Amino acid sequence: MAERVVISGIGVVSPFGVGRDAFWEGLAQGRPGVSRLDGLDTLPEACRFAGQVSGLRPEEIIGSKGLKYLNDATRLLLCAAELARRDARLEIAPELAEDVGVVVASSFSNVGDCVGFYESLLSPGERTNPLRFPNLFINIAGGNLAIRLGVRGLNTTVTNGATSSLDALQHGLTALRCGRARILLVGGLEVLSPALIEGFWRAGALGDTGAPRPFDRRRGGLIPAEGCGVLVLERAEAAQARGARVYGEVAGYASVPVEPSDDEAVATADAIAEAMRRALGAAGADARDVDWVAAGAGSSASGDRGEAIALQRVFAAEPHRLRTSAIKSMLGDACAAFGILQVIACLLAAEHDRVPPTINCEDEDPDCRVPAHVRDRSVAHPVRTAIVNSFDCDRAASLVVRASGSPSS
Amino acid sequence: MSDESGSMPVGGPMTAVERTQVSAQVKRFLADELERDIGEMRDDAHLFDDLGLDSLLFLALFEELQGEYDVTVDTRKLARFARRNPVQTLGELIDLITRIIRGEVLLD
Question: Do the Cβ atoms of A68 and B35 come within 8 Å?
């Protein structure tokens, strides 16, 4: 019988600031977390917006020693992981080293380092420092975290588009359940860079609405973001033995491909609906049990519509418990990292009995009618069963999260 | 000082003064990069066990010294040489670097 695996620690650094409390305050207040980008003068002004991490001082969280050649992505992951470790009251003794592992979801967190390294190679008279070379590999952050923690267990970096975070969580859970690890730190990590944003623009993906407008008639494409969320996962008995808090657990997961189609919205809808149904089935749960859907919509013309259609189908009975919102409206789209941020939002929503809103959706598209849509302001609402959706034009993944709520409840 | 092939001609005898200069530079550089006290940079310090010197830092050190001494060393030949003639302590490393700078070592 599979052992029960729980989430026992949370660490997060996001456009709302450093730490869990800052993250929740932003969500609860319905605060716009997206801000203007410096530079990028070749882009139209309306495209120069993103969810940015600022004010992070790694020396204050992880000390200043050994930081010199660590790239921004590594610093960000190390900070969020340290916050999660402290939250879980986890001390990693040397005997545990091979039983503790790291899983990181990340796509483009080192693109800036690759570009910078190459620019250095091309600069006449500049000697490129070989110590910058390891930063060219997307798993550098996950590798450095293991080195920092002195752990030698499972170490995987997952790069799989929008579903990376949920896939990383599922990978971690599978490893824990079959005994390949006893404790895992599972993180979602993205860092923006000028070349990357320029690339999004040249690929025609970048939105020009200044702010993310999920489900809104005016939505116009990706507003990118960066950030890092880390969860500590371990067996329930181990967490309890240490007096760590049990935030909740992943109850079900499903990943479904989006079929190629002329109608991208409908194809996406089919995949998201199927992912939600399968995840609910795996969790032994029903649409009526769901308190909050943390939607994956991020201002995509077809994608948002696809999710709205899927929600209408799965929640056709309009169950009274349901609330729905898209928090990319506040944070922007941190791509591979976002699923973990959504899971953290679910756990904190349960702690506070409050559902964050979709903001910037003053003009909800009639083709994107979202059942039980929470807009503009957060609402008081108990959250014990939540769904997290992540999707892009290739795949849709859904996770069912069962949350414990406030420790005093 | 080096020819096109990257192998270096034999030069004069090593002198204490030169080694002292090289020693000071290497120790300063490594203390800075490893974020250690200069006092820990002893000749008998073990490169790996005591100082945690890795191959990339080794190469970075040579980049630094090449700038200082206007010497060009083919890093692949250096890496090959280092694999075949491993040094264990900081003192041995400084000896080797001094000899390379003086052109006393053939890298091939």
Answer: yes
Cross-strand partners of B4: none
Question: Which residues in A lie closer than 8 A to residue B32 (C-beta atoms)?
Answer: none
Q: CB burial class (10 A; 0-12, 13-18, 19+) of residue A137?
A: middle
Interchain contact A118–B (C-beta under 8 A): no
Q: In this model, does residue B3 exceed pLDDT 60?
A: no
Token pair for residue A225? 């973001």
How much of chain B, in percent, has pLDDT values that exceed 90? 38
The residue count of chain A comes to 409
Helix (H) or strand (E) holding A82: helix A72-87
Q: Which residue of A has its CA nearest to B75?
A: A130
Stretch A35-51: mean pLDDT:
95
Under 8 Å CB-to-CB from A121, ≥6 apart: which residues? A128
> How many of the other CB atoms lie within 10 Å of CB of B58?
18
Q: Is the pLDDT of residue A258 over 80?
A: yes
Which chain A residues have a beta carbon less than 8 Å from that of B59?
130
Type and span of the H or E element at A11:
strand A5-14
Q: Which residues of A touch B53 (CB under 8 A)?
A: none
pLDDT score of B100 = 84
Question: What torsion, rounded to 10 degrees, do the Cα atoms A176, A179, A185, A191 define?
Answer: -80
Largest pairwise CA distance in chain A: 68
- The ipTM estimated for the assembled molecules is 0.76
Structure tokens at A174: 């599978």
Beta strands in A27-166 (DSSP E): 34-36, 49-51, 100-105, 155-158
* Residue A2 banded pLDDT, cuts 50, 70, 90: low
Of A65, A66, A131, the CB nearest to B60: A131
pLDDT in tens, A277-296: 999 999 999 999 999 999 99
A366-371: long-range contacts (C-beta < 8 A, 24 or more apart)? A366/A217, A367/A305, A367/A308, A368/A215, A368/A216, A368/A304, A368/A305, A368/A308, A369/A308, A369/A312, A370/A215, A370/A295, A370/A308, A370/A311, A370/A324, A371/A311, A371/A312, A371/A315, A371/A318, A371/A322, A371/A324
A60 exposed, middle or buried (CB, 10 Å; 0-12, 13-18, 19+)? exposed
Phi/psi of residue A14, nearest 5 degrees: -140, 175
pLDDT at position B74 is: 82
Buried-state track A96-118, b at ≥16 Cβ within 10 A, e below 16:
beebbbbbbbbbbbbbbbbbbbe
